[in-house]
Write a structure and sequence with these properties.
Layout lengths: L3 H10 L14 E3 L6 H11 L2 E4 L6 H4 L7 E6 L2 H11 L5 E4 L13 E7 L6 H7 E12 L5 H8 L11 H10 L2 E15 L2 H10 L13 H14 L2 E14 L1
Organism: Luteipulveratus flavus
InterPro entries: 23S_rRNA_MeTrnsfrase_RlmA (IPR052939), Methyltransf_11 (IPR013216), SAM-dependent_MTases_sf (IPR029063)
Protein name: Methyltransferase domain-containing protein
């Protein structure tokens, strides 16, 4: 049996750039939303002449949804992901540009038929609407409210009461305020299982917003306690939430 120290040491040093989660195969599982974002994305690529993917990460999702539209641009703000995305999209004819998550985007007004983004850190609604051509489509899968709450609370304690910023109705209001008409909005709650403490360390390094300023040293006591729980129960169970939103520029 692999020791606590070995599991943590491996997960603390493995590369976490990009949005490839294959390192977790056999160590964690998460239900997927019923709508199948990549499948729906492929359909929208097929009917678009130009598309923009915001906060593309390592571009794994869009590269797998090809073929890409004739003109395809992706944005990314984090340098390690930028290099990964360029390697993925360059051979497919896509361009990747450096741009802050909140905008502004270094792109012309009304220049895309389709704007997409999967799990954005923040959605720059006004900028997304600005670069969409009239009648163009915004299509996105986003992290919803209370996602991985059980995991965050294990380390940080109870969340404060009140509405969450990632409520899909907040997204609807912001999209509408930016000049987009919401056509579809769906929310699902999905089961996550973390099967060893290495998976916990890895996911908190890859998704640092769940436990800000996370480090093995800072949270050593809570990690050790969670390792002991997983050894007894076989897994730590949490729940993610995802919502799908599609909107059209007026």
């Amino acid at each position: 049996m692999t020791s606590y120290e070995e599991l943590v040491a491996e997960a603390a040093t493995v590369d976490v750039s990009g949005w490839d989660f294959s390192w977790l195969d056999g160590r964690a599982s998460e239900e997927r939303p019923s709508w199948g974002y990549q499948r729906l994305l492929r359909r929208r690529f097929a009917s678009a002449r130009s598309a923009l993917d915001l906060q593309t990460g390592g571009a794994e999702v869009v590269a797998g949804a090809g073929p890409l539209p004739a003109r395809f641009v992706a944005t990314e703000s984090w340098a390690p992901n930028l290099a990964v995305a360029r390697r993925a999209l360059g051979p497919l004819g896509g361009q990747v540009v450096l741009a802050p998550d909140e905008g502004p985007l270094p792109l012309a007004d009304a220049s895309f038929d389709l704007v997409t983004t999967r799990h954005p850190v923040v959605t720059p609604w006004a900028e997304a609407a600005r670069v969409l051509a009239p009648g163009g489509t915004f299509f996105s899968q986003q992290v919803g409210p209370d996602s991985a709450r059980e995991l965050s609370e294990w380390f940080l304690g109870p969340w404060p009461p009140g509405p969450q910023a990632r409520d899909p109705e907040v997204a609807r209001a912001r999209a509408t305020g930016a000049g987009l008409d919401v056509l579809d909005l769906r929310l699902e709650r999905l089961r996550m299982e973390l099967l060893d403490i290495g998976a916990v360390v890895y996911i908190l390094r890859k998704c640092p917003w769940w436990v800000p300023e996370f480090s093995v040293e800072r949270y050593g006591d809570r990690l050790r306690a969670l390792h002991d729980l997983i050894e007894v129960d076989g897994a730590f169970v949490a729940h993610s939430t995802r919502f799908l939103i599609e909107a059209r520029r007026r």
